[in-house]
């Protein structure tokens, strides 16, 4: 769907800017510059304010990134459960560092804080879907689901 | 003691959360019906008398909060459910929403009737997309059945900001802005969402409401510790055999939670410390384990109950490394609005990293303590005020761990 349509659909929702950004990002994977500019017009706020909202929340990205967003929890319970080894396994498997995307555009690798699945640490999420009790050795098979 | 008592999780595993009829068959929405026969003032008095205190961490008397919004002039008022559960190690609100969404809706509807609100919002964290689906399904079922009457509830999704758990930051986010806390006063019950009187209550707080209305204030007030009655859902993480959740009366001690319910420390290792209430909580040494998991009892040992997260560390764990990780968390999550927090969290992360790398000295500990003191009273919101508690409490109770890392 055209991002202009998504934004205008939210124009009359009170406080709808965050919801609108969620909806556009679900479509495009991130919030390109022109989206933020158009949102400012639609919601009748300065572009700086729209940009401020787009960059405030960690789930929004104003930069293009890999299609499948892998987020690794670095909060204390995951930290002591061996999150660092999962980081190593992910970086090795994908050949990129945390915060980067793979050149083929398939994966983005990001840190996150607690995702609320602490009964089975360490935890990663891919496109919001949690993977629990993750062992470094499982990383290739988990990623293969998204390589098909 | 040390037995589970399920109030907010009373329907856990007993009903299909996606079927409103299951909830109704368990007596669901009866409390709302009863509440609507009561005078709002009497209803608020009943909630006040139950001495239910906020389960999000602040521990404010729920009925009293409601009375402020009730008294506030204006026709337009709001009920907001804080489902932005972001405190690391916590997933109690997710359990309630995943397994019994209608108890939350019923609690919100009772609050709405009490204060005179027609519109409610559930602000659910962006990390729980599946939960927002469950909530939306529940709301549409409730509308179809007509149980909510003229009270309308909308679900809004957060987008990954810990600070939005702070009620005024949450309100800002609901208004579509950056989630930065507001100056207080005014407090939300007098000026909240779009400047209107607003009640912001945590999921667990609201889930208690239907049961309190049904069984009465006296019944509730008699459970657990009198100054913080009822139950608390605790979530166990770290070095504990049963990494799971329990709902227990508030007179249950930390020791009982870890050793009886939690099954103790794995691998026959010894206990080192437990951090309660989430990542902003104090680290508690062995000598304080007989403290009940109630608000004032925890405060008396210089700790907090917070969200009820229980993060256990065994003797092999590096306290300084863990605290260093936690200070990074606060550096990341500080919203940047006020200087003491923006700068303080960054500097504390820097100093902790230095100590953790074996490059620190007594001078750095002194700096951390001074910084922590200043932040505790100069930061704008709870995030900055509490950010240094993990460092300060471990310097107090586990100083040797720091000294062992000195140059």
Structural account:
With 148 residues, chain A is of the alpha+beta class. In chain A, 43% of the residues lie in helices and 12% in strands. Chain A is built from 7 helices and 4 strands. Chain A has a 4-stranded mixed β-sheet with strand order 2-1-3-4, covered by helices on one side. In chain A, helix 1 (3-10) packs antiparallel against helix 2 (17-28), helix 1 (3-10) runs parallel beside helix 3 (33-42) and helix 3 (33-42) packs across helix 4. The longest helix of chain A has 12 residues, at 17-28. The two termini of chain A are 24 Å apart. The mean pLDDT of chain A is 96. Chain B has 407 residues and is an alpha/beta fold. Chain B folds into 3 domains: 20-222, 3-Layer(aba) Sandwich (Rossmann fold), CATH 3.40.50.11540; 225-314, Ubiquitin-like (UB roll) (Roll), CATH 3.10.20; 319-403, Up-down Bundle (de novo design (two linked rop proteins)), CATH 1.20.1440. Chain B has helices spanning 20-25, 30-37, 40-50, 62-71, 92-99, 101-115, 129-145, 167-174, 203-215, 217-221, 254-261, 295-300, 319-333, 339-356, 362-378, 382-386, 389-397, 399-403; strands at 78-83, 119-124, 152-157, 198-202, 224-225, 228-229, 231-238, 245-249, 271-276, 283-284, 309-314. In chain B, the strands form 3 sheets. A 5-stranded mixed β-sheet of chain B has the order 8-7-11-9-10. A 4-stranded parallel β-sheet of chain B has the order 3-2-1-4, with helices on both faces. In chain B, a hairpin with a 2-residue loop joins strand 5 (224-225) and strand 6 (228-229). Chain A binds chain B through residues 14-19, 21-22, 43, 49, 52-53, 56-60, 74-77, 79-81, 112-121, 125, 128, and chain B through 85-91, 94, 125-129, 156-162, 173-180, 194, 235, 237-239, 243-245, 275, 279, 309, 311, 313, 317, 322, 325-326, 328-329, 332-333, 335.
């Amino acid at each position: 769907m055209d991002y202009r349509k998504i934004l205008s659909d939210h124009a009359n929702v009170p406080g709808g800017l965050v919801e609108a950004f969620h909806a556009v990002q679900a479509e495009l994977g991130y919030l390109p510059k022109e989206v933020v500019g158009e949102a400012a017009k639609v919601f009748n706020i300065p572009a700086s304010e729209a940009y401020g909202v787009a960059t405030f929340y960690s789930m929004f990205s104003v930069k293009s990134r890999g299609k499948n967003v892998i987020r690794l929890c670095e909060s204390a319970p995951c930290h002591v459960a061996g999150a660092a080894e999962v980081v190593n396994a992910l970086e090795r498997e994908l050949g990129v560092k945390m915060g980067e995307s793979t050149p083929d555009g398939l994966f983005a690798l990001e840190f996150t804080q607690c995702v609320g699945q602490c009964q089975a640490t360490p935890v990663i999420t891919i496109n919001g879907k949690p993977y629990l009790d993750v062992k470094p050795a499982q990383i290739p098979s988990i990623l293969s689901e998204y390589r098909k | 003691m040390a037995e589970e008592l399920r109030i907010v999780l009373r329907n856990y595993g007993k009903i299909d959360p996606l079927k409103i009829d299951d909830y109704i068959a368990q007596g669901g929405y009866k409390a709302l019906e009863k509440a609507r026969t009561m005078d709002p003032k009497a209803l608020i008095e009943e909630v006040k008398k139950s001495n239910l205190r906020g389960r999000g961490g602040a521990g404010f008397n729920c009925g009293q909060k409601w009375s402020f919004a009730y008294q506030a002039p204006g026709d337009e008022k709001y009920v907001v459910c804080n489902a932005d559960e972001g405190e690391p190690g916590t997933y109690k609100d997710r359990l309630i929403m995943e397994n019994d969404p209608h108890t939350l809706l019923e609690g919100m509807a009772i609050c709405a009737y009490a204060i005179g609100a027609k519109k409610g919002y559930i602000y659910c964290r962006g990390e729980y997309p599946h939960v927002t689906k469950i909530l939306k399904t529940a709301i549409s079922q409730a509308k179809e059945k007509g149980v909510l009457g003229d009270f309308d509830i909308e679900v809004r999704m957060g987008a990954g900001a810990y600070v939005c758990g702070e009620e005024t930051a949450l309100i800002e986010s609901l208004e579509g802005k950056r989630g930065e806390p507001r100056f207080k006063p005014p407090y939300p019950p007098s000026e909240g969402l779009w400047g209107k009187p607003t009640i912001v209550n945590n999921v667990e707080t609201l889930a208690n409401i239907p049961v309190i209305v049904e069984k009465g204030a006296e019944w509730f007030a008699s459970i657990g510790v009198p100054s913080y009655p009822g139950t608390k859902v605790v979530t166990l993480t770290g070095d504990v055999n049963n990494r799971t959740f329990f709902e227990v009366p508030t007179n249950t001690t930390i020791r009982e939670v870890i050793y009886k319910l939690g099954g103790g420390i794995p691998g026959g290792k010894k206990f080192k410390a437990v951090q309660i209430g989430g990542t902003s909580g104090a680290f508690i040494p062995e000598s304080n384990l007989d403290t009940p998991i109630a608000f004032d009892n925890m405060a008396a040992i210089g700790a907090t109950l917070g969200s009820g997260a229980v993060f256990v560390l065994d003797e092999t764990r590096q306290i300084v490394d863990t605290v260093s990780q936690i200070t990074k968390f606060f550096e990341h999550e500080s919203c940047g609005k006020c200087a003491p927090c923006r700068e303080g969290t960054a500097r504390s992360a820097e100093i902790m990293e230095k100590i953790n790398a074996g490059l620190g000295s007594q001078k750095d500990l002194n700096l951390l303590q001074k910084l922590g003191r200043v932040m505790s009273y100069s930061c704008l919101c709870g995030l900055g005020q509490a950010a240094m508690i993990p460092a300060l409490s471990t310097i107090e109770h586990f100083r040797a761990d720091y000294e062992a890392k000195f140059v």
